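Hi support team,

I submitted a single chain yesterday and got back a structure, but I'm not sure I'm reading the token output correctly. Could someone confirm the output below corresponds to the sequence I sent? I've pasted both exactly as they appear in my results page.

Thanks,
R.
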Amino acid sequence: MVLPLKDIRVIDLTTVAMGPLASQWLGDFGADVIKIEAPGGDSTRQTGPSIEGGMAAMFLSANRNKRSVVLDLTQPAAREALTRLIDGADVFMHNVRPQKLAKLGLEPERLIERNPRLVYAGLHGFGEAGPYGGHPAYDDIIQGLSGCADLMRRQTGEPQYFPTITADKTTGLIAAMAILAALTGRAASGRGSIVEVPMFECMAGFNLVEHLYGCLFSPPRGDMGYPRVLSRHRRPYRTRDGYICMLPYTDAHWHAFFTEAGAVEHATDPRFATMTARTTNIDDLYALVARLVARHSSSYWLAACERIGVPASPVLSLDEVINDPHLGAVGFFSTLHDTQLGDLCMPGVPVLFDRQRPPITVPPRLGQHSAEVLGELGLGEAEVQSLVGTPDSLGSVGV
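Hi R., thanks for writing in. Yes, this is the structure output for that exact sequence:
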């Protein structure tokens, strides 16, 4: 199949999670993503279970559909090779802290002067114009600053992180989207652009979609925080023999649910009769629903909800997700075979192009494509070897 980004080349100097996830999206959509790594490799190559050194689970999850080139950027010749690669690229993306850019010769103005069509994407913890600009940041830090931990406090009584790297994954998606937007703009103008993607700002915007709430107005017309999703009762409902997820949402849904539950009188209760009233009295509503759902089994409620048109689902464990029949039917998971790693079960690209799922490849070994890619610059084997350094000569240049 021909993918939308088949003629786009991306030079990717990002490490850890946010940036690699962003470039993985571009690779999934057909771009030639060249991952530039220090001699020691991306730190995630050592994160999680592994069969082969440098090919740990976290690296495998964020670096498919890429090629790996090792460059020891402490060497001027390696920095020049990187610059030459960027000269021939459509996108350069990095998560190097701003104060290190000049030392590496990666200032955006310099690179765009050499390659006016370049989309230059800096993925940072914070916007460079603010007082936090240049500070280091990881997912936990951004979750704390952007309100994630406070949302958990409001619901559970104590600050906690979301049990997923939500800041990395969300910002990675936004970064991929912003780069695609810049490429679209370039198609019209013929010129590249500088794209800044700060984690803090991305996650603040992400959380405030619903939680700015009453403070969206000036003067405020209520507190911050969307009551429905902050309710301590918002959780899967316990049934007589397990749990289900269920969400009556419209007035018609609630009337149908209360009728099915043998409690039709609640459909006309002023506290629950309208969307506004339900939101105001959400704790009382969820507590009532919990009592009603507990009277019957999970299978009863799943069948009843399908019959009356109320959205509902079972609660799947992570182990059950990978065996879900729907995901199996649509061919979401791929089994990739590698001679050293054996079979790898990997989630596929979630979107289809012309009703086909894009293919995926095994993430690259460290420096697997150094000779191939640098050879395109006219460098011989000895020159390539001199640029890659040794594993202990340089750690990550990142965040």
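A quick pointer for reading it: The longest strand covers residues 32-37. Let us know if anything else looks off.

Best,
Support desk
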